[in-house]
Amino acid sequence: MFHVTQEPQNVVTECDGGHGKSSMPGEAVRVIVFTRGLAIGLLTLIGVIVLGIDTSDLDGRSQNVFENHRAFPCESYIESLAFAPDGRSLALATYDDTVMKWNLTRNCPAFSIYWSCARDVAFSPDGLKLAATNTRSRVQVWDADTGELSEELEIGDDCSRLLKFAPDGRTLAVGGQRGTLVLWDLIEGGIKAKVLAHKRHVGALAYAPDGRLLATGGGEGVVVIWDVATLQEQRSFRAQMSQITSISFGSDGQTLATSGGLDASVRVWDVRTGRALAKLEGHSLGVPALAFSPDGTKLATVGEDGLVKLWETGSWRELVTFKGPRGWPTSAAFSPDGRTLATGGADRMLRLWDCSPEAILRLQGRPDSQRLAAFLGTKTARASRGGFNPWTWSFRLRRWMAFGLEI
User: Quick one: three-class SS letters along the chain?
Assistant: First the structure.
């Protein structure tokens, strides 16, 4: 299923390919792109010199962009992923009807399970159980050590989409395609409570760290905060203009981050009042996945633009940006110690990003010339942050001439 990439700093993404030999029609297209790129490059260079345009972020991406991860190719795209509580393994649900436990110490699968239309996966808080939904109305629970099936849950007439274990491990919350929210009692067995949570599908689901609150995000863009003890709605508010695809509680249980749809911004909310605390802008396309670090000091956002951003909570300033694949990321999760971020999606790659304080400080401490070299892949480019430098722009101009509107 997986093959380890031996050189994690040189992972080939979708943007790296496509420069092989081409036929005559391809050459004709390349001439057009060359001409357009030359015109754009010359006009930009004139604007920089004559008008003094600030080009520090002309291409929509920060110069402070790095590749800082290991990657494991997969045979199918990743629907969902989750860390085990001990941080030594990951669970993955993939589009080829597979639920897998991946051993992070030995970099190999511990076991794989066939589960038709697998959609979402989660470990129990004690790490003894592994559960997964599929697009039907069932949830299966396995022994997390052996992969043996321990029980199968029938949640009703709605197609199960998402699931989360309560922090105490006694309840399993399941969100449905038709907007239902089901709480399953894992101790006594059976449905503990069931409610129609959203007019459209449940697109995101998260427990507060203390387990007293449960947040759901719907296909209509609304967040609902539920009292877990009674499954009564505490409050609701519109969080995004379209569907919500990801939601995460901060470690204090009073902060909630949301993202989804075509909205390139991430919003942070006060759970008690529903008041917006921050709007994080930096991605150029939608942000399907996000996650708070366990200690609550960082928020990771994963965008369709191929960028993984870390934000400092409280100040909400951008700490660092990693370069990932363009496409549709589906899931993001921090390891229990907060030092690693796992992401997966339609590019069929499991990626493990180094988010340790040492790595962040090391990347932030690079001089601008090294930052630009890390982004553009050259050791000769030199940058002057916030101003014009002929070395930098001669290099960018060559790339525009070669690849036109790619940059």
Answer: CECCCCCHHHCCCHHHCCCCCCCHHHHHHHHHHHHHHHHHHHHHHHHHHHHCCCCCCCCCCCCCEECCEEEEEECCCEEEEEECCCCCEEEEEECCCEEEEEECCCCEEEEEEECCCEEEEEECCCCCEEEEEECCCEEEEEECCCCCEEEEEECCCCCEEEEEECCCCCEEEEEECCCEEEEEECCCCCEEEEEECCCCCEEEEEECCCCCEEEEEECCCEEEEEECCCCEEEEEEECCCCCCCEEEECCCCCEEEEECCCCCCEEEEECCCCCEEEEECCCCCCCCEEEECCCCCEEEEECCCCEEEEEECCCCCEEEEEECCCCCEEEEEECCCCCEEEEEECCCEEEEEECCHHHHHHHHCCCHHHHHHHHHCCCCCCCCCCCCCHHHHHHHHHHHHHHHHHC
